[in-house]
Amino acid sequence: MHQEIILGIDPGTRITGYGVIAFHASMQPLDFGCIRPPPDLPLAMRYKIIFEAIEALIDKFSPTAVAIESQFVLKNAQSAIKLGMAKGMALLAAARRGIAVYEFAPTQAKLAVVGRGGASKSQVQKMMQTLLQLPHPPEPEDASDALSLAICCFHKLRSEACLNPSKGR
Amino acid sequence: MHQEIILGIDPGTRITGYGVIAFHASMQPLDFGCIRPPPDLPLAMRYKIIFEAIEALIDKFSPTAVAIESQFVLKNAQSAIKLGMAKGMALLAAARRGIAVYEFAPTQAKLAVVGRGGASKSQVQKMMQTLLQLPHPPEPEDASDALSLAICCFHKLRSEACLNPSKGR
C-alpha cells in the first residue's frame, strides 16, 4: 500500500479548518489548524486569503485528495452564500492543481471517526487525539473536523480500492 | 472626466452572465455574454472555468470596478451554496487583481436602468438595448443583468465622486 496524503477542509468565511494526514501503515498528522482572515477586511480580500492559504497547503503537502465538508442545512440564505464562497475557494484550489475533491456531510465524518453520526464536536476532538496520538485534542473544533474529513475520505478511497483493486490502491 | 470601465457579473453555477461597459461622455458596451461550464464536469472543474473566464475578462478589459449581483432570497440552502461558490469566483478574481468589488441587489440594478426595482428581465433587456444602442436586446438575460449591474455601479461611483470631488473622478 503506497502512502496516501489527504487534506481535509472545513470551509467557513470566519474560520476555515484544515487538517493534513498521511495514511500508510498508520495515520500520521502532518499539519492542522485554521485560516482566519482578519474580519475587518473586505469580503473579497478575505476569500483571497482563504484561497491562497489552501493553495499553499496543497503545494506544501501534495495531497492525493481534498475532502471538503458539505453542509446541507443552514440558518439563512446569507450564511449559505458565505459558506458557498468559502467552499468555492477550496474547490478552486484543488481544481487548479488537478486534485480530486470529495464532499462529505458532517454526519458522515462523525460516523467515520466516532461511529455515530450524531457525535458532538468534543467527542470528535477526543477521538482525533486518540487516533492521531496527539498530546492534546486538536484545536479549534474546525481543525478537528477537518482531520475527521481526511479520515472519512481515506475510508472511502480504501473501500473503493478494495472493490476495484485494478485501480492500484 | 476620465474613462471608467466596469465589469458586471451575474454569478451562477450553470450560467454566469458578464457585461463590460466603458463610461466616458457616453456608454460603450465593450463585451457581454455568459460563461456556461459544461454541466457534466465535476463541480470543482466548473468553478475553475468560471474563475478563469472572469480572470481573462479582467485581464482583457482592465476594469476599474467589478459589480456583482447579490441575491438575498433563495429557494434552499443548496442553491444558496452553489450561488455562493460562483460568486466567490468573481470576488476572488477581482481581489487577485486588486480591483474594487461592489455588490448590488437585483432590485437596485433594475431601479438604476429601468427606474423600477420590480421591472421584468425583458424590460431590463429592452432598456439595455436602448441605452447601449444595440441592434437587439442583449441575450441571454444573465448578460443583460450583468450590463445593468455595470450601469448601476457607475451611477454609484459617480454620485460618490460628486459628493467627494477630491477623490478625482
The interface involving the most residues is between:
A-B, 29 and 29 residues
Mean pLDDT value of chain A: 93
Number of distinct helices of chain A: 5
**Approximately how much helix is present in the residues of chain A?**
40-55%
Give the low-pLDDT segments of chain A. none
Extended strand count of chain A: 5
Query: Order of strands across the biggest sheet of chain A?
Result: 3-2-1-4-5
Shape of chain A: globular
**N to C succession of SSEs of chain A:** EEEHEHEHHH
Report the oligomer: homodimer
Describe the largest sheet of chain A: 5 strands, mixed
- Structural class of chain A, by secondary structure, is alpha/beta
What proportion strand of chain A?
Answer: 15-25%
Rg of chain A (CA only): 15 Å
The rounded distance between the terminal residues' Cα atoms of chain A is: 6 Å
Can you tell me about this structure?
Two copies of one chain form a homodimer. The first copy, chain A, has five helices and five strands; from the N terminus they run βββαβαβααα. Chain A is an alpha/beta fold and 169 residues long. In chain A, strands 3-2-1-4-5 form a five-stranded mixed beta sheet. In chain A, a hairpin with a 3-residue loop joins strand 2 (16-23) and strand 3. Chain A is globular, with a radius of gyration of 15 Å. The N and C termini of chain A lie close together (6 Å). The mean pLDDT of chain A is 93. The A-B interface holds A 42-45, 47-48, 51, 71-74, 77-78, 80-89, 91-92, 94-96, 101 and B 42-45, 47-48, 51, 71-74, 77-78, 80-89, 91-92, 94-96, 101.
Features:
globular; alpha/beta; 169 residues; 5-stranded mixed beta sheet; homodimer; 5 helices
